[in-house]
Amino acid sequence: MGALKKVVKTIDFMSEKSGQIGKWFAVALVIIGSYDTIMRHFFNAPSDWAYDMLCMSGGALYLLGASYDHLYEAHTRVDVFFSMLKPKGKALYNVIAALLFFFPLIGMLLYMGITWAIKAVKVHEVMFTSFWYPPAFPYRIVFFVGILLLFLQGISNFVKDLYFLVRGEKID
């Protein structure tokens, strides 16, 4: 039991740190967006790189924050019925939803993410949405890492819910 608690705590810690890193991409979004807007509108000097940086920063914010959101159950949930369930009912619902929806979807995303990242590194892929043409591999790797962290957090939450169903107590 001690090993299981340690694994769950380690995954939760990684999700916490991922969220702390991801939030800095929100700061980057504000700085880059402000810089580009000021340069474009006041100095008639738009940048070639800002659009790509905004897209990559926004994606990194979203992807690195996904496991953090899942850790704290801050994701969007249609809880018309869920909110009326007792704690064991919520845990059962989470276990079933994880098996039917979460793990198959995240499994496909993991496969696509690693395929994308490997291809980006091998062929020296670039982003072609602007004339800057930045390398795509950093974003592709962040995509994969974000999905991997979300998958791990899904395992942690699944274990916690299953443990609660079986034992009637939470893993602390």
Task: Kindly name the structural category.
Answer: mainly alpha
Proportion of helical residues:
over 70%
Radius of gyration: 20 Å
Mean of residue pLDDT values: 94
Shape: elongated
Beta-strand residue fraction: under 5%
Per DSSP, the total helix count is: 4
Task: Please give the domain count.
Answer: 1
Distance from N terminus to C terminus (CA atoms, Å) equals 11 Å
The overall strand count is 0
Low-confidence stretches: none
Largest sheet: none
What is the chain-wise order of helices and strands? Answer: HHHH
Structure notes:
- This protein has 172 residues and is an all-alpha fold.
- It has one domain (2-167).
- The protein is built from four helices and no strands.
- The protein has helices spanning 2-42, 50-71, 87-123, 137-167.
- Helix 1 runs antiparallel to helix 2 (50-71), helix 1 runs antiparallel to helix 4 and helix 3 (87-123) packs antiparallel against helix 4.
- The termini are close together.
